[in-house]
Amino acid sequence: MALRVGVIGGGQLARMMIAPAVELGLDLRVLAEGEGMSAALAATAVGDYRDLDTVRAFAADVDVVTFDHEHVPQDVLRALVADGVVVHPGPDALQFAQDKLVMRARLAELGVPQPDWAPVRSVAALQDFLDAHGGAGVVKTPRGGYDGKGVRVVRAASEAQDWLDALAGDDALLVEELVPFVRELAQQVARRPSGQIVAYPVVETVQRDGVCAEVIAPAPAAADRLVEVAEAIGRTIAEGLGVTGMLAVELFETDDERILVNELAMRPHNSGHWSQDGAVTGQFEQHLRAVADLPLGSTAPRSAWSVMVNILGGPEEGTLEERFGAAMAAHPQAKIHTYGKAPRPGRKVGHVNVVDDDLDDAVYVARATAAHFD
Fold first, then answer.
1. Among residues 2, 34, 13, which one has the least CA distance to residue 245?
2. Does the model's pTM come out above 0.90?
3. Residue 322 phi/psi, 5° resolution?
């Protein structure tokens, strides 16, 4: 009988696990949040991932549980583990991707470089932090934020008054120094339960309005020291937090040559989509190998450069599928991946990968192909 891998969450990350699961001989099953989700082809159940009975029923029919997102509550995860369900990554690791304050405290214990930060519960405490850090800071809600949501750059504590007023009990906001970065990077590693770990090349990510727009692999003009430091950070975090599966570490490269950890994701990640076509083993296959505790694949690039450009929003009229023919004809070397989502301003509805020995050509073709879907 094929190993049954259950993915909680029916988004595009689960969708892109389907093909490699078939190739690996794995039986992929998905608990989707609703009908018509991106991963509908593999959705064997529809229900609320926050409901223990729903998740228990789904988990009872698989050999290992993994995730399309990090939002499954800790009490649900720990109940599964208590039931004897194999969960990768487990709740002890996943908590650090679910709560940014918990993450910051643990990374500090590991000695990982990160921005100055503090928990704040009052306007006075926030203003004190801003005053000590050049009059500006980044305020984040510790839980639930993604793609720029739950993040504010503030220059006066009053700009976060509404978030502070909404705090309950011992809750706090996270404030970080406004890092003088020259670019954003991402380091991906994969780790299996038996301990094997592999690293991908560090990549450069380009953000627009808080959303990843482009990725270049490997990061251009990356000195050997930067590559070594980024990989060491990724390995330290994966081992120190006990991550199983894919781990993406979002990084800042600062104007004074520091490498600082921004955020973590314990699953396949937008910064790794390039690897589908640009690496010997793509991140979706690698994640499945890791959570199934199979030997990990080579992370070596297939060519000098890989460029990923997100398709954001999609066409104002019609569907993405109507644009495929023209895009393919104009740029046959491009690989187009779509998510089965209806167009909507700012929404990630697909991405384009281009692999080439010339970086300028790769960037041009990837951007031009994605433009067919505007």
1. 13
2. yes
3. -70, -20
Task: Give 217's strand partners.
Answer: 306
- Cα 315 to Cα 106: distance, rounded to the nearest angstrom: 43
* Pairing between β-strand 173-177 and β-strand 117-120 as defined by DSSP bridges: antiparallel
pLDDT in single tens digits along all 374 residues of the chain: 699 999 999 999 999 999 999 999 999 999 999 999 999 999 999 999 999 999 999 999 999 999 999 999 999 999 999 999 999 999 999 999 999 999 999 999 999 999 999 999 999 999 999 999 999 999 999 997 665 678 999 999 999 999 999 999 999 999 999 999 999 999 999 999 999 999 999 999 999 988 899 999 999 999 999 999 999 999 999 999 999 999 999 999 998 889 999 999 999 999 999 999 999 999 999 999 999 999 999 999 999 999 999 999 988 887 888 898 999 999 999 999 999 998 988 899 999 999 999 999 999 999 999 999 98
